[in-house]
Amino acid sequence: MGFGEIFDRAVTLYIRNIVPFVAIVLVLVLPTAILEYVMDLNSGSQLADMLRVFQHPGQAGSVNPWAFYNSPGGLAPLVATVVLTYAIWPFALNAVAVGVARLYRGRPVEFRACYERVLRRWTAIVGLLGVELLVFVMWYLATLAVGVLLIVSVSVVFAAAAKALAIVFGLIVVLIIFGVMLPLLLVLVLAMNFAMYSCVIEGTGVAASLALGFARIFNRGEFWRALLVAIATTAMIFTASMLFSALGMFLALVHLPALQAIVQSLPQALVTPFTVVVLAVYYFDVRIRREAFDLEAGLEQLTAAQPA
Q1: In the chain, count of helices (H) and strands (E)?
Q2: Residues 171-230 pLDDT 10s
């Protein structure tokens, strides 16, 4: 399928099965929404103080904008949200992908069946999650090292000629680094998603899943197509998050923390499962094109142990 066809297929599958897909993701959304409600409830007074500072700049010295997050009551729910998201997200992501696989096999998207398949692979998922974290740390350190090295080199070369010239070329180097490393990060995340799909849908081990994820994305025939898909899905999530965050900020100012938590959870509940459906459709498309994957035969193992 072409780029547009992938999204068209994803929209069709998602709209027709929006209830089970959203239900799968609610396993993550509900507890995080509760934690966000607790944070919004406790940080309301701090937000009101900051608003008064904008209205009356002379009061700036009496307000600490980080007071809430420096307190145990503010830091605990924030840490819990991060840990919970990191722990549950891979299972919800894979459950949505299994749902897409079931649709390709002519089976309905069933909450229990999707999670049963994922939970049977929980040890491999946890292991792969740890390896992926290590990969991202290595990417970050490599980006930092390359950036520092290039900026220092440019500064040394041009400092003797003119400080202004050194600053200009230093900024150009920074822009180049972001222009190269950020797209690389997007494709890296997509490869990690493919590795997770391989782990659950194909039943491969940690090392094999990671190798397949990289091999299917980081090649001359697929890299740019993968980058396009990654940019599109990231843009959808970012745009939805910004819009609903702005609405959530308004609700915070009018002191409606419960509604604020609900509104801020909508992108995660509605947009996120759609982007996962897009990636799952793309995953099967890559396998069909590159590996002559037969959906009818290849998904037999996935659905054989699941109820019809």
Answers
A1: 13, 0
A2: 776 777 777 778 888 999 999 999 999 999 888 899 999 999 999 999 888 899 999 999
Instruction: Look at phi and psi of residue 107 and say left if phi exceeds 0, alpha if psi is from -120 to 50, else beta.
Output: beta
Secondary-structure breakdown of the chain: helix, strand, coil percentages, each rounded to the nearest 5 = 85, 0, 15
Of 279, 115, 268, nearest to 192 by C-alpha is: 279
Each as own residue / partner, the long-range contacts of residues 131-137 (CB below 8 Å, 24 or more positions apart, any chain) are 131/206, 131/210, 132/192, 132/195, 132/210, 135/188, 135/192, 135/210, 136/188
Cα(91)–Cα(108) distance, rounded to whole angstroms? 19
SS3 167: helix
Q: Which of 211, 173, 184, 183 is nearest to 195 (CA)?
A: 211
In the chain, where the domains are located: 3-304
Q: How many CB atoms lie within 10 A of CB 57?
A: 9
Tell me the two tokens of residue 71.
């307190």
- Kindly report the pTM of this predicted structure: 0.75
